[in-house]
Design a protein that fits this description.
FAD/NAD(P)-binding domain; seven-stranded mixed sheet; single chain; alpha/beta; Alpha-Beta Plaits
C-alpha cells in the first residue's frame, strides 16, 4: 500500500511538473491576447475595413491553426478558447488562416465597406454600379498578386458569358486599363475566350510591382495564370515578376499600349467611349485593373518642390553618408526607412503622425523596432512636417517644433487613385451610397476570396 502511494504520488508530482508550467504559460498568453484585443478595439484596429478574417464562434474549436498560419502576425489569436481578431487592419488577405481552419469556422473577405469613400461598390461579379464597368485587383480593396490574377481571370469569364456574338470592327469587346497582374491576367483570359480586347497603361508593364524597391520580395501563393500556367513559389522578387510578365506579353503577343493614360470612360450609344491620352476607343465593356497608388499624395508644405524630395525609393544602395527623413507610417515608409538605415553612414529619421506603426505588417514593425532600439533610426511619432529647406526639415512634435539636418526627404504617404474619374463615370462608393434622407443604402460588395 505504501509502495502504491509512493508511485501515485510520484506520478502526480511528475504530471504537475509537466502540466503546471503549460497551464501557467497558457493563461499568461490568454491574458496578453485579451489585452491586445482590448487595445485594438480602443484604437479601432479590430474593425473590418478592407480584407478581413470573419470568424464563426459557434464553429471555432480554438485550435489556433489560423494564428500559426497567418504570415503577418498579430492579426489573430485565441482569446478565451475562441479565435479572435486582434488587429484586423494588418490583414492583407493571404487566406492561409482560412485554409488552415479544420472546421471551416473562418472566411477571409471584404469587411464592411459601406462607409468607405475609397472603396467602390462592387457586385459579386466585380461589376460597379455602372453596368459593363468592372473593377478588379487592388483598386477594389483586396491586395495580393494571387487575388489580382484570380479576379482578372474570373471577370473575363463573366464578360465572355454576357457579350453578344455580333461584333463591329470599331468596337472592342473589352478595354482593360492596367498592365499589372490583374490586367494581364484579364488580357490572357480574353485571348483564351476569343474576345477582341486592348490593354492600356500609363506607365509600363508590371503595374504596382513596377514601383517596388529593387529586390523586394513579394509574397504570393500558387496561382494559375491563363495560358501561361502556374506561379508555384511562395515568394518572388520584383525582378522575377517583371521578367515573367514581360515574357508573357512577348510569348502570347498581348495587345498592350504603354504610356497611354485613361482619362475618361462614358456610356455613349450602347457602348463605352474611352478617352485616353493618345486617342479614343469604343468598347462594350471596361475592366479597370488599376492600382491604388495613382498620383503621389503630397504634404502641401513649403519646400516640397525641392529636387531632394522623393515619393518612392527604388534603390536604397544609392544613398550613403546622408541625413535622410522618411515621412509615413505604412509598409512602404517602413521598408524605405529600414533599407536606408542599413546603408553605410546614413542617419535616418522617420516622421509619422500616428502613435505607433499599428497598420504595418508585423514583420516590418519588428524590423524597424529593432533598428530604432539599436539607434539606427530615430522615430518621431505624432509629428508633422511643417517646412522643407535645402539643408533641413522643420517638424512639429509633442515637445514643440524641431529642425533636423537633411539631404533627402522621402514622402511615402500613399497616392491619389483615379476616384474623381470613376465618380464622373457614375461609379458609386461605399461612403456615397446613401438614400435621400442620408441613411445608408445596402451595399452589394461581394468580393470574398475564392
Amino acid at each position: 500500500m505504501a509502495e502504491g502511494t509512493i508511485i501515485w504520488t510520484a506520478v502526480a508530482i511528475l504530471g504537475a511538473g509537466i502540466i503546471l508550467p503549460y497551464a501557467i504559460q497558457f493563461h499568461r498568453r490568454q491574458r496578453e491576447a485579451a489585452r491586445r484585443q482590448h487595445e485594438a478595439r480602443g484604437s479601432g484596429h479590430d474593425r473590418p475595413r478592407g480584407q478581413y478574417p470573419f470568424i464563426d464562434p459557434g464553429l471555432c474549436i480554438g485550435c489556433g491553426g489560423c494564428v500559426t498560419a497567418c504570415p503577418e502576425g498579430d492579426v489573430l489569436d485565441v482569446v478565451h478558447g475562441t479565435a479572435a481578431v486582434i488587429n484586423g487592419q494588418r490583414c492583407v488577405g493571404h487566406g492561409n488562416c482560412e485554409r488552415a481552419c479544420p472546421v471551416g469556422a473562418l472566411v477571409v473577405g471584404l469587411g464592411d465597406t459601406r462607409d468607405r469613400d475609397d472603396i467602390p461598390i462592387l457586385s459579386a461579379e466585380f461589376e460597379t454600379t455602372v453596368p459593363g464597368l468592372y473593377i478588379v485587383g487592388e483598386l477594389g480593396g483586396l491586395s495580393l498578386i494571387r487575388n489580382a490574377v484570380d479576379q482578372g481571370k474570373r471577370v473575363i469569364g463573366i464578360i465572355a458569358g454576357r457579350t453578344p456574338t455580333a461584333k463591329a470592327d470599331d468596337v472592342y469587346d473589352v478595354i482593360i486599363a492596367g498592365a499589372g497582374p490583374a490586367g494581364l491576367s484579364a488580357a490572357l483570359g480574353a485571348i483564351e475566350k476569343g474576345l477582341r480586347y486592348l490593354v492600356i497603361d500609363q506607365t509600363e508593364i508590371g503595374g504596382t510591382v513596377l514601383h517596388y524597391p529593387h529586390r523586394k520580395l513579394v509574397m504570393t501563393q500558387p496561382v494559375e495564370i491563363p495560358l501561361f500556367g502556374w506561379l508555384r513559389k511562395d515568394e518572388y522578387s520584383k525582378e522575377e515578376l517583371l521578367e515573367i510578365w514581360t515574357d508573357i506579353v512577348r510569348r502570347f503577343r498581348v495587345s498592350v499600349r504603354t504610356g497611354e493614360r485613361l482619362n475618361d470612360a462614358s456610356w455613349d450609344g450602347g457602348v463605352f467611349r474611352i478617352i485616353t491620352s493618345a486617342g479614343m476607343y469604343r468598347a462594350r465593356n471596361v475592366v479597370l485593373a488599376l492600382g491604388r497608388r495613382g498620383t503621389p499624395r503630397k504634404l502641401g508644405v513649403s519646400g516640397e518642390d525641392l529636387p531632394k524630395v522623393m515619393y518612392q525609393l527604388v534603390d536604397a544602395r544609392s544613398y550613403t553618408e546622408h541625413n535622410l527623413l522618411v515621412v509615413g507610417g505604412g509598409d512602404s515608409a517602413i521598408e524605405a526607412a529600414v533599407g536606408l538605415a542599413r546603408q553605410p553612414g546614413n542617419t535616418v529619421w522617420i516622421s509619422y503622425r500616428g502613435k505607433s506603426f499599428a497598420k504595418a505588417k508585423k514583420k516590418n514593425e519588428d524590423k524597424i523596432r529593432d533598428l530604432i532600439d539599436r539607434g539606427r533610426i530615430t522615430a518621431l511619432f505624432e509629428s508633422e512636417v511643417k517646412q522643407i529647406s535645402p539643408a533641413g526639415v522643420e517638424l512639429s512634435t509633442g515637445d514643440g517644433r524641431i529642425e533636423i539636418p537633411n539631404d533627402y526627404v522621402f514622402i511615402m504617404i500613399g497616392g491619389l487613385p483615379p476616384f474623381d474619374m470613376l465618380r464622373g463615370a457614375g461609379v458609386e462608393f461605399g461612403g456615397t451610397r446613401k438614400n435621400a434622407d442620408g441613411t445608408q443604402r445596402p451595399s452589394t460588395v461581394g468580393a470574398s476570396l475564392a
